[in-house]
Amino acid sequence: MGKIDVHNLWRGLIMGTVETIPGVSSGTIAVVIGIYERLIAAINGLSTREWKQSLAFLIPLVTGIFIAVFSSAKVLSWLLDYYPNQLSFFFLGLIIGIVPFLLKKVDYKRTFSGIHYFVLLLSLLLIALFGIMQDPVQSSILGSMSASDYLAIFFLGWVASSAMILPGLSGSFILLVFGYYETIIDALDHFHFPVLLTLIAGIGIGVLITSKIVHFFLNRFPVGTYAVVTGMVLGSVFVIYRGMPADIGGLIASLVVLVIGFCVAFLLGKVEHKQ
C-alpha cells in the first residue's frame, strides 16, 4: 500500500460535515480544497492495479467523513426538533446560492443551447412535481421501518453516492427529496445499525459502480450533465420549503439564515470557480 496521506483526515472531516447538509456537496468541497480530480481517480483506481495507492488516499479521507457525519448528526437532529423552519430556510439559501456556481461551471451563456434549457426545465419540473406529490420533509419513521423502507434506503444510498461525486449536488439532498433525510439523521443520532448498514451498503456499491458512469458523463457531456443537475437543484426549492413561520420573530430569523445560507453556498461556489 502507498503512503497514507494524513492530511486527508481533516479534508474528510470538512467533506463529511457538509455532506449532512442538503444543498452543499462534498464534491464541491473536494474541488475547493484541491483534491477533486485525485478523488475521482482514486475511486476509479480501486478496480485497477493501482488499488493500493487508491486505498492509501481514500482510507483517511473516508475515516474523516465518517467521524464528521456521526458528530454533526446530533446537532442537526436537535435543530430539526426545535428550529425546523429556520433550518429549512438555511437549506433553501444554500441551494439557491449554489446555482450561480453550477451555471458558471459550464459557462452557460456560451455553451447552453435549446436542448440544455429543455433538460434543465424538465429536471426542475420532475423534482418539483415529486415534491408537490410527496411529503419529503416527513418526520423520522425510524420506529416503524418496513422491508420496503429498507429497500428504498439501500437504493437511495446508491443514488446518493452519485450525488456526492457531482459538485453542487449532495447525497443528503437525495435523501431529503425522497423523504428519508430525517430518518437517516435520527438513525445516526441513535446509532441504529440496521438502517446505517443498509445505507452504507448502497453507498459502497454505488460509489464503485456509478462513479464510473458519472465520470464518463462529466467528461463526455459536461454541459448536459450540469443542465440536469441545475434543474434538480432549482426544483428542490419546492421540495424543501415548509411554509412561512407564523410569528414575526421566527420569520425574521428564517430570513436571516436564508441570507446566511445563500452567502455560504455562493462563496464556496465562487472559490471553486476560481480554481
What secondary-structure arrangement, pairings included, does this model have?
Elements: H1 7-19, H2 26-32, H3 36-45, H4 51-82, H5 84-105, H6 108-111, H7 114-133, H8 147-165, H9 171-177, H10 181-189, H11 193-220, H12 222-240, H13 248-274
Helix pairs in contact: 1-2, 1-4, 2-13, 3-4, 4-10, 5-12, 5-13, 7-12, 8-9, 8-11, 11-12
Largest sheet: none
- Compute the CA-based radius of gyration: 18 Å
Mean of the pLDDT scores?
A: 82
Helix content: over 70%
**What sort of overall outline do the alpha carbons produce when their principal axes are compared?**
globular
What oligomerization state is this entry in?
single chain
Poorly predicted runs of 5 or more residues: none
Number of helices: 13
Structural class call reads mainly alpha
Distance between the termini: 30 Å
Quantity of strands, as a count: 0
Helix-strand pattern: HHHHHHHHHHHHH
Report the sheet-strand fraction: under 5%
What do you see in this structure?
By secondary structure, the chain is mostly helical. It has a domain at about 75-265. The protein has 13 helices and no strands. The protein has helices at about 5-20, 25-30, 35-45, 50-80, 85-105, 110, 115-135, 145-165, 170-175, 180-190, 195-220, 220-240, 250-275. The longest helix has about 30 residues, at about 50-80. The mean pLDDT is about 80. Keywords: Membrane, Transmembrane, Transmembrane helix. This is DUF368 domain-containing protein.
Overview in brief:
The protein is mainly alpha-helical. It contains 13 helices and no strands.
